[in-house]
Amino acid sequence: MEKQDIVAALLERGQLITPSALDEAYMRGAVPSSDKFIIDALTEDVKIMKNLAAKPKEADTKMYLEFYVSKYNKMKEIFTSRFSRDFVSLNKLDASRSEVSVFGIVKDMKGNTIELEDMTSSISVVFDAPIEKVERDDAIAVEGASGGKVVYGKKILFADIPIRQPTTGQGRACFVSDLRLNETPPADVERFFKWFSNEQLDYLFICGDVGDKAALERLISMHCAGRKVIVSPGQADGGEYPQTPLDVKGAICVSNPAVVEAGGLRLLMARDFDITMLRKRYLGRSKVILPEDFLVLDVVPDIVHCGRTGQPRVENYKSVSIVNSGSLLEEFKPVVIDFATRDVRQVMI
After folding, report:
1. For 46-68, what is each residue's pLDDT tens digit?
2. Alpha carbon of 106 to those of 123, 135, 141, 174: distances in Å?
3. Range(s) of the domain holding residue 145
């Protein structure tokens, strides 16, 4: 039994498992039944929708193929659900100059030409002008004229997220980024957590560099009673991107990136985030080969919680609230969101 099978079985029961306990369960080859393995029970208003619990120790040729095929299939499913088009397989293009829509992964690009490939073939897509905002490995759709082994491109489509009304839920949450507890003056950290403990808040989302897990555990124990704390790690916490969860007592620990459903809203936690990731429905470049491509954004979030920049940020994209509190080492403005109204407020502490 693989680690991902153990994690999936526990999630079905509404439970999470610590990394160390996952290793033990993997060695035993069975899904644990004892509560000693569980760090937190998920309640009806907190669910983990996207979480990388473990990585394989090594990747073989078969896994490389599965990784890239999974990206293709996941992205094609997003495109077909987003656009009412009949995408023509690249090996079925003729020289009729008829209007076609094709889907594929960008293999290469130069000047005004893109090399596009799907599961059947590869072709050149030629445009009248140099191509902008497209990168190698992007999943795109192209509208154009069929020319046999070439498509005369007219328009490029990214998957993007749909325009919609803001989703509302229940509860209030605070979002903080890059606490860096191994570097931040303790007085500044204590001031924030004392403020948090006196506010009417249901959740604390922590995204990015934690720095000192023991210190965070102590702070959660002292100041977060009755609140749900969700932690997603940063680069300084170790591990290649995408990162597996930390093991922090008293917190629901998820990977970087991860998608959590809380209070009826879907929240993407991704330390290094750019709005292009929503437009392309892809969360950066994986540093590791996994059994499937974990970075396809197949869930549309209501809130994106990010970090890294050290500068506070609040903006909106197609009813998605994008928030970054900055850092206690630079400029720090915790963000409070009322899930019922979607009101977003930056706090000076």
Report:
1. 899 999 999 998 888 999 999 99
2. 10, 7, 10, 39
3. 83-157
